[in-house]
Design a protein that fits this description.
The complex is a heterodimer of chains A (about 400) and B (about 230). Helices cover about 55% and strands about 20% of the residues of chain A. Chain A has about 400 residues and is an alpha+beta fold. At the A-B interface, helix 1, helix 11 and helix 15 of A face helix 2 and helix 3 of B. Bound molecules: adenosine-5'-diphosphate.
Chain lengths: ~400, ~230
C-alpha cells in the first residue's frame, strides 16, 4: 500500500516528476558514457602497451627491470617453452633486445635491435600488418620507416649493426634490409630494427638466450592467477621472475589513476547537480503536504510508515531515472564498443604522435553500469533523509489544522 | 451501560506564552454508546482542546481520559497513534482525504493500516460507501467529488473500521447549508443504523438541533450538559 501511495504521489505533479526523472536519466546516460570512454581509452592504452611492449606478464631476469642490459638475459629453449605452456597461456613470445649503432652509407644512427619470432609477434600485435614493404626473413633486417629515412636506405640495401654483445663481447653483423615497418609508436619508428630471434642471438653472442618472454593469457582478467602459477614453476633460488604489466608499466598505471581521479571529480559535480534536483523536488513534495501528513498521523498512521512512503517516493524517482538511463545507455555503449569513433583529422595526427590508435574506444565493463546505479540510489536514500526528519519532527496538531 | 469515553478531572494548561492559559479546567464527562453529542461554546472556550484530548491527539496536563477501559493519557506517542488507529474515527473540517486515492481506497485506508483481510475491507468499504450514498462514486478521486461528497467519504472512512466513536471537528464548517444538511442527515442515520457514537465540536445551529446531547463550554469549564 505504501508503494502504491508513493507511486501515485509521484504523479501528482506529472511535470515536476518528469523533469526530475529526466535529469536523473540524462545524468546516468552522461555518466555512463563518460565513464565508458574513460575506461575504454584506458583499456585500449593497456592493450596497446601490453601487446607491443610488455605482455600481460613477462618472464625476465630479476635485475633486468632496473637495468635492461643484455647481461641480464636468460636461457630459453623448447623445453622451457613447453614447461611454461600452462592451460591459461595463449602464447609465449620470446624477445632479445639490445642497443646498437646502425650504419649504412655515410650515416649512423642508434637503433634498438629486437630479436623476434615474426609469426608469434603477428599473433600478438599484428606486426606483419605494419609492414610497409618487404618481409621478415633470416639474415634480413626490418627497419622502422623513419629510421630508414634517416639512414637514407631502402629495401635491398645493406646495413651494418655494431655494438656490445652478451658479457662484453663484440657484436657486429651485416644485414640486408628486407622490409620496412610503421609501428604506431613514433619512438619505435625512429629506432627499431627487427631481426629474427636466432639472428639477434648470434649477433649478440647470446645463444639460446632471451631478454624477456612475453606471456599472453587466454583471459586478461585471469592474469594475476596465472602469474602465481608461473612463479610456482620457477625455482625459488633462480634469477628469473614473473612480472605483471602493472609492475612493468608504472607510468601508465599512474597516468590512468590520475585520469580516473579527474574523471571522478567531474562525475561528482554531475551527481551533485542532480542530487540537488531530486532534493528540490522531494523538498516541495514534503512541504506542500504538511497538512496531509498531519491528518494521516492523526487518523493512526505511524510516522515511520510515512517516512517509508517518502523514501519510496525518492527511490522510485531515482529508479525510473536509472532504468531509463540504463535502457538508453546499454545499447549505445554496446554499439560504440564494437564501433569505436574515429577521431577527427587533427586529433588523428596528435594521437599518432603519441602512438595510440586514432579511435575513441568505449568500455562495456558491467561495473560501469552498476556503479552509476549504486551512486544514484545512494543519493536518493540520502535525499530521503530530509522528509524522514521532517515527518519525525512534525507537530501533528498544528499541521492538521493549518 | 458502560461509557465508551470517560474523563476524570481533566485539566489542560498552556504555559508557553507569558501567562499560563487554562484551556480546560476540571472536565468530568461520560459519553455513552449511541450518543450524538455536540460540544458548543464561544470561540476560545476550549472546544478544540477538549476534542484533542478526547481523540488522543494531545495529552492532558492532569487528569485521565478512559476509552474502552484504557487510560489513554498514559500512552506514549506510538501507542497513541496505534490506539487512534484502532479505536477512534476522525472527521476534520477539510482536506480529510488522500488526494491520490479513490473514494473507495480512502474508505479502505484505515482498515488497510489495521491490516485487515482484503476481502473484508472491500466488502465493508462498499457497504459504508453505499450508506453515505456514494455507491457509484467509489472509483472517483477526491478532486472529482464535491465538497459535501468529500466530507461524506471522510465520514465513511471514519466509521468503516467500527471505532468506539467518531470525533468530528466542525465537519460542516466549509459546506453550504443544503450540503451540510445532507451530511448531517447521513451522520444521524449512521448514528441510528450503525449505533455509531458521534462527538462534534461546532458553531452550527443545524448540528446542535440534531444532537441528543449538548455540552456547553465556557472558559474551559462545562457550563451546561443537557440531554434531550
Ligand atoms: N497551542 C496552544 N498554546 C497556547 N494556547 C493555546 C493553544 N491552543 C489553544 N490555546 C488557548 O486555549 C484556549 C482554548 O482554545 P481552543 O480550544 O482552540 O478554543 P475553541 O476551539 O473553543 O475556539 C484559547 O484561549 C486558546 O488561545
Amino acid at each position: 500500500m505504501l508503494l502504491k501511495l508513493a507511486w501515485r504521489n509521484l504523479w501528482r505533479s506529472r511535470k515536476r516528476t518528469l523533469i526530475t526523472v529526466s535529469s536523473v536519466f540524462f545524468a546516468v546516460l552522461l555518466a555512463v558514457m563518460a565513464e565508458s570512454v574513460n575506461r575504454g581509452s584506458h583499456e585500449s592504452m593497456i592493450r596497446n602497451s601490453v601487446s607491443y611492449f610488455t605482455g600481460y606478464l613477462q618472464l625476465q631476469d630479476s635485475a633486468y627491470f632496473e637495468e635492461p642490459s643484455l647481461d641480464y638475459c636468460f636461457s630459453w629453449n623448447e623445453a622451457e617453452a613447453e614447461r611454461f605452456s600452462l592451460p591459461g597461456v595463449q602464447s609465449l613470445i620470446p624477445r632479445l633486445q639490445g642497443f646498437v649503432l646502425a650504419a649504412g652509407g655515410d650515416r649512423t644512427r642508434a637503433a634498438l635491435v629486437l630479436g623476434i619470432e615474426p609469426e608469434k609477434e603477428q599473433q600478438l600485435n599484428g606486426l606483419q600488418d605494419q609492414l610497409l614493404a618487404g618481409d621478415f626473413e633470416p639474415g634480413g633486417v626490418v627497419l622502422g620507416d623513419r629510421l630508414a629515412e634517416r639512414l637514407q636506405l631502402g629495401i635491398g640495401d645493406s646495413l651494418v649493426l655494431l655494438g656490445q654483445g652478451y658479457q662484453g663481447q663484440q657484436a657486429a653483423g651485416i644485414y640486408r634490409i628486407s622490409g620496412l615497418v610503421k609501428p604506431t609508436s613514433p619512438e619505435l619508428r625512429k629506432q627499431i630494427a627487427y631481426l629474427t630471434l636466432a639472428d639477434a642471438q648470434s649477433l649478440f653472442g647470446a645463444y639460446d638466450m632471451v631478454s624477456s618472454v612475453l606471456v599472453m593469457p587466454n583471459q586478461p582478467n585471469a592474469t594475476d592467477k596465472l602469474q602465481q602459477q608461473m612463479s610456482d614453476l620457477l625455482p625459488a633460488d633462480g634469477f628469473v621472475v614473473v612480472r605483471n604489466w602493472r609492475e612493468l608499466l608504472p607510468e601508465l598505471l599512474a597516468a590512468i589513476e590520475f585520469d580516473n581521479a579527474s574523471n571522478r571529480i567531474i562525475l561528482f559535480i554531475l551527481y551533485l547537480v542532480i542530487g540537488f534536483g531530486i532534493f528540490g523536488t522531494v523538498l516541495t513534495m514534503t512541504l506542500e503536504r504538511r497538512k496531509e501528513f498531519g491528518v494521516l498521523i492523526s487518523v493512526g498512521m505511524r510516522r515511520r510508515r510515512l517516512g517509508w512512503m517518502a523514501l519510496y517516493e525518492s527511490l522510485l524517482m531515482g529508479c525510473i531515472g536509472i532504468l531509463a538511463g540504463m535502457a538508453a545507455s546499454v545499447p549505445l555503449v554496446a554499439w560504440f564498443y564494437y564501433h569505436p569513433i574515429p577521431m577527427g583529422e587533427e586529433l588523428q595526427a596528435i594521437s599518432e604522435e603519441f602512438g595510440v590508435e586514432p579511435l575513441i574506444f568505449f568500455s562495456a565493463d558491467p561495473s560501469i553500469f552498476s556503479s552509476q546505479a549504486l551512486v544514484v540510489l545512494g543519493m536518493c536514500l540520502l535525499v530521503a533523509l530530509y522528509p524522514g526528519y521532517y515527518i519525525s519532527k512534525l507537530d501533528v496538531l498544528k499541521a492538521s489544522r493549518s | 451501560m458502560t461509557p465508551v469515553l470517560q474523563t476524570q478531572n481533566l485539566h489542560k494548561t498552556y504555559s508557553e506564552g507569558p501567562v499560563a492559559v487554562h484551556a480546560l479546567r476540571n472536565i468530568n464527562l461520560e459519553i455513552h454508546p449511541g450518543e450524538f453529542t455536540v460540544i458548543v461554546g464561544p470561540s476560545g472556550s476550549g472546544k478544540t482542546t477538549l476534542l484533542n484530548m478526547l481523540g488522543g491527539l494531545d495529552t492532558p496536563s492532569t487528569g485521565k481520559v478512559w476509552v474502552a477501559g484504557t487510560d489513554i493519557s498514559e500512552l506514549n506517542e506510538n501507542q497513541l497513534i496505534d490506539f487512534r488507529l484502532h479505536h477512534i474515527g476522525f472527521v476534520f473540517q477539510a482536506y480529510n482525504l488522500i488526494p491520490v486515492l479513490t473514494a473507495e481506497e480512502n474508505v479502505s485506508f484505515i482498515m488497510d493500516l489495521q491490516g485487515r483481510p482484503a476481502a473484508e475491507i472491500k466488502a465493508r468499504a462498499a457497504e459504508v460507501l453505499a450508506e453515505v450514498g456514494l455507491a457509484d462514486r467509489g472509483k472517483n478521486r477526491p478532486a472529482e467529488l464535491s465538497g459535501g461528497q468529500q466530507q461524506r467519504v471522510a465520514v465513511a472512512r471514519a466509521l468503516a473500521s467500527r471505532p468506539q466513536y467518531v470525533l468530528a471537528d466542525e465537519p460542516t464548517a466549509n459546506l453550504d447549508s443544503q450540503t451540510a444538511f445532507n451530511l448531517l442527515d447521513t451522520m444521524k442515520r449512521l448514528n441510528e443504523d450503525e449505533k455509531m457514537t458521534f462527538l462534534f465540536s461546532t458553531h452550527d445551529q443545524r448540528v446542535i438541533d440534531r444532537a441528543t446531547r449538548v455540552i456547553t463550554l465556557v472558559d474551559g469549564e462545562i457550563a451546561s450538559d443537557e440531554r434531550r
